[in-house]
Amino acid sequence: MPFRSDIAALLALFLGVLPAAENPIRTRVLAFYSDDRAHRWPDVLEHFTVGKVAARWPAPLSDPTWIAATPSPDDEVCEPANGVPPSRMSITSVGRWARVFVTWCDRRATDEVWLLRIGAAWKIARLVRDVRPATFP
Predict the structure, then answer these.
(1) pLDDT tens digits, 21-42
(2) Spacing of C-alpha 69 from chain mean position
(3) Is residue 2 scored above 90 in pLDDT?
């Protein structure tokens, strides 16, 4: 049977295995940072959800996968992105929540971003800039 890219893409979608460029969580996070760096404040606000909405679905703080999430290792390759400096991104998804660590290769600083899936869209529910390694498991 010949390889069919359409079937492979559909299977990858169902399994949650998407290339970095197509990952909607990565896309949302990079779009936020691009708007933030360009000082497009109305656009920055569009990346966030309202706290009242996020409170409806509590983050899975006691889930072992969530707890075990850590930033990408230092030896992982930095990826360039349009409008933002090169970074490494670690994405952990649990249900409708995603925990993302963004490590900026030029500053060696790591931000922690929590996103909530509302319908088909991922929105930022929490952002902590320059988190310290002592806070990681």
Answers:
(1) 469 999 999 999 999 999 999 9
(2) 12
(3) no
> What distance in Å separates the CA atoms of residue 36 and residue 133, rounded to the nearest whole number?
24
Do residues 24 and 13 lie in contact, with contact meaning Cβ atoms separated by under 8 Å? no
Query: What's the per-residue H, E or C state across 61-122?
Result: CCCHHHHHCCCCCCCCCCEEECCEEEEEEEEEEECCEEEEEEEECCCCEEEEEEEEEECCEE
How far apart are alpha carbons 27 and 115 in whole angstroms?
12
Tokens of 1: 């049977």
The angle formed by the CA atoms of residues 35, 41 and 46, to the nearest 5 degrees, is 75
Residues 6+ apart with CB under 8 A from 76: 88
Question: How far is 33 from 28, CA to CA, in rounded Å?
Answer: 9
Entry pTM? 0.79
